[in-house]
Structures are given as structure tokens and as C-alpha cells.
Amino acid sequence: MDPNIIKRNELLAQTVIKGLESRNMTGYYAANKEEALKKALELIPEGSSVTMGGAMSAHEIGLVEALHTDAYTFLDRDKMEPREALLAGYDADVFLTSANAMTNDGILVNIDGNANRVSYIANGPKKVVVIVGMNKVCDDIDGAMKRARNVAAPINAQRFGLSTPCSKTGACANCKSPDTICCQFLITRYSRHRDRIHVILVNDNLGF
Predict the structure, then answer these.
(1) Quick one: DSSP state of residue 22?
(2) Which residue among 101, 105, 164, 193 is least crowded, i.e. fewest CB within 10 A of its CB?
(3) Distance in angstroms (rounded) separating the CA atoms of residues 113 and 111
(4) Mean pLDDT confidence for 28-48
(5) What number is the average pLDDT over the span 120-138?
(6) Domain 3-202 sits in which CATH superfamily?
(7) CA 121 – CA 188 distance, rounded (Å)
(8) Strand ranges of the sheet holding 184-188, from the earlier edge strand across to the other edge
(9) CA distance 179 to 100
(10) Is residue 196 scored above 90 in pLDDT?
(11) How many angstroms separate the Cα of 3 from the Cα of each of 8, 31, 133, 186, 208?
(12) What DSSP string runs through 82-118?
């Protein structure tokens, strides 16, 4: 990565971290995927029960693979009945996720189809660990919402093979398609519970 981009990301991350702190959330900067993995594992004590949504960023830093050991109780929703997985997730020690976008003053923006991911972020699991590539940091809420709807949503719709307008055009059509994954929007501007939401900002392009 270009040294100027690295420096810019380091400086921007410090601004984001201050914003998170003002919102009762905790932020960290990781210079690369390896540092991000190390920090995430520091935040997830051995013996923890862990659930997650479809966080590609967590896969990309190697975190999901690292949690598939006897040291953790990984609640694999692909191996559970949907209702069982949903309810077990609310009582998990840690919810592992990413964000569709976030602002440079620390606001998280997420869109969801089934609402398990946004509901876990809002309430339930004791701790939320969010892995965010610096490519997802936007100037403001408007920019973050546009990114979530016009970048993350179309790519995810294509990834899941859904028949939505955005999967065909690459841009949000504000649709009401039966396949839409833009059912719930969560803007996390403050956490009432200190030490619950932890955001690891990674100096890399992660996720969608």
C-alpha cells in the first residue's frame, strides 16, 4: 500500500476512534490483517461463546478460522435450526460482525434482511466486536447510507443470488422486492453500555 495512503488512514483512524469514544464505544487501529486478528482475539477471552452474522471482514483477517477451536464455543448457525441459532445468539458472550459503513465521527451504519445482525448489535450479546476496513469510512451519515445501499447491498444481493433490481444494475432502486435485503436499517450513534461495542479499524480494503 502507498505510504501516503497508510499515513492518511492512520490519521483518519485516530479521528474515528475519538468519535467512537465520545459515543461510549471503543476503537482500535490495526495496521494490517495480522494486527487486527491479534486485537480481536485479545477482546474474545477463551471459553467465550461466539456468534456472528455474515461478516466477510472477519473471514478475511482469519478470525473465523481462529475461533473454530476447542478454546471457544462457536455457535455455527449453518449447523443449527434457524430459530435455535437466533435465540442462542442473543445469549452469546460475543457477537462478531462488520459494518456496511461508518462515519468519520464514529457512527455505525448497517442494513439487514432478517434483522438478526442489526438486532444483535443493538441488544443481546454481552460484547460486540466489529471489524471494519478503512474503505468503509465515510464523511457523514448521508455518505454512509449511500455506501451501504449502493455498494454493500448490491454486492451482497449478487453474492446470495437474489433477484433484486440492485443485483442486476449495481445500484439501489429503493425496491420492495420479496428478495430485498434492505429490510432494516440500524444507525448506532451511541452505546448506552460502556465496554460493549468494540470497533477494530483495519488499514486494508475489507468486505463490501
Answers:
(1) H
(2) 193
(3) 7
(4) 98
(5) 98
(6) NagB/RpiA/CoA transferase-like (3.40.50.10420)
(7) 8
(8) 137-138, 101-103, 108-112, 184-188
(9) 18
(10) yes
(11) 9, 12, 17, 34, 23
(12) HHHHHHHHHT-SEEEE--SEEETTS-EEEEESSSHHH
Give me the sheet containing 73-74, strands edge to edge.
26-30, 197-202, 127-133, 94-97, 49-52, 73-74
Q: Is 139 exposed, middle or buried (0-12, 13-18, 19+ CB in 10 A)?
A: exposed
Closest CA to 54 of 20, 100, 122: 100
Question: Which cell is 111 given?
Answer: 442494513
Which pLDDT does position 174 carry in this prediction? 96
pLDDT at 78: 85
Is it the case that residue 61 has pLDDT exceeding 90? yes
Contact 129, 40 (CB under 8 A): yes
Question: Residue 2: pLDDT above 90?
Answer: no
Asked if residue 63 has pLDDT above 90, the reply is: yes
* Separation between Cα atoms, residue 100 and residue 155, nearest integer Å: 11
Decide the pairing of beta strands 101-103 and 108-112: antiparallel
Q: Say which amino acid occupies 71.
A: A
Q: Which pLDDT belongs to residue 16? A: 98
Average pLDDT over residues 95-118: 97
Return all residues near 140 (Cβ < 8 A) that are at least 6 apart. Answer: 103, 104
